[in-house]
Amino acid sequence: MTPPDNTQAGKQIWIDVLTVISCFAVVILHTNKIFWERPQGRLWVTANIIETVFYYAVPVFFMISGYTLMDYRQRYNSKTFLQKRFRRTVIPFIAWSLFGLWLYSYKNAIPLETGWRDIVSSTLTHRYVGIYWFFIPLFAIYLSLPVISLIPQDKRQKVFAYSIACAFISYAVLPTAAKLLMLDYDKAIQAPFVGGYLLYTLLGYYLGHYDISRRIRIALYLSGIAGLCLHFFGTLYLSPPDGIDHTFKEYLNFPCVLYSAAIFVYCRYSHYHWLEKNPVAIRLLHLAKTAALGVYLLHIYFVWYVPQWLGLPEQSIVFRVGGAVGIFLACVAISHIFRRIPILCALIP
């Protein structure tokens, strides 16, 4: 069975939907930051639910990058590709990291770092805006694509399937299995050619471009549900009263990989007739999708200040869920304002 023709004016709706829901997931993960303070009672349960359900955010974004960028050679050469990535991600990353450095110093009343070594180090290590860690592996993926994309189209399905299997076993299964079985192993056995987050890049291309049979999809959905449950209940019951147990957490752990892959495939094979028939909904989807980078760059500053501005406790469900919706919409609006203003448009392309 081939996937439904989820296109509108040449644009694939399912990728736009994935982009928007993964972007919103990032926001709600951060408004739910009380999770990392290991609260007690019902608050611990609700925080864990939100954390687990929306944990697909970053993995799915890496998968989208693999799906949309792997074939860049069909549009332009590698030099143009890297220039575009530099303008679209590196410049905003540097600019907003510097802004974050200043705002963090102001917010916490600490001296502003002015030495160039301190500034460079704090930027590269996302010391003051921790959520910008995501850009570093993203840059590594961009630098890898000119090599990976050289694999011929007629060989990619088998080569990528083998690479995904190696990455999944090496980085998603082996570390957790060794921990559960209390075994030591030499990490040099992990396949180096698919290190980092390349697993998600290859997985996004594979699951987005090749037909996935109904039987495999059902198996993947069940595996995704199992991964979600293992992540939730494992974290819920294994975590000590004063900390978070990471046995079934981490983005490269197999519960997250299975869950994220299931989300990706489900969106690809879903039907969006209701959306296609509604021009207003399509327009709103496009507005949210094109503002995704801006939302990621901006939302953390609202997360820092909105509870203070509105007098909302950070642990309240109103802030953790309702605040996430409001911050998401505000960042979409601000992103489009920036995109219309010369010079500022370079900060949120």
UniProtKB/TrEMBL annotation:
Residues 13-335 form the Acyltransferase domain. It is found in: Cell membrane. It comes from Cardiobacterium valvarum F0432. InterPro entries: Acyl_transf_3_dom. Keywords: Cell membrane, Membrane, Transmembrane, Transmembrane helix. GO terms for cellular component: plasma membrane. It is a multi-pass membrane protein. Its main location: membrane. The chain crosses the membrane at residues 12-31, 43-69, 90-110, 130-152, 159-182, 188-207, 219-239, 251-269, 281-305, 317-338. One of its GO terms (biological process) is enterobacterial common antigen biosynthetic process. The keyword Transcription does not apply. This is Acyltransferase 3 domain-containing protein. Belongs to the acyltransferase 3 family. Pfam families: Acyl_transf_3. The keyword Cell membrane applies. The lineage of its organism: Bacteria, Pseudomonadati, Pseudomonadota, Gammaproteobacteria, Cardiobacteriales. GO terms for molecular function: O-acetyltransferase activity.
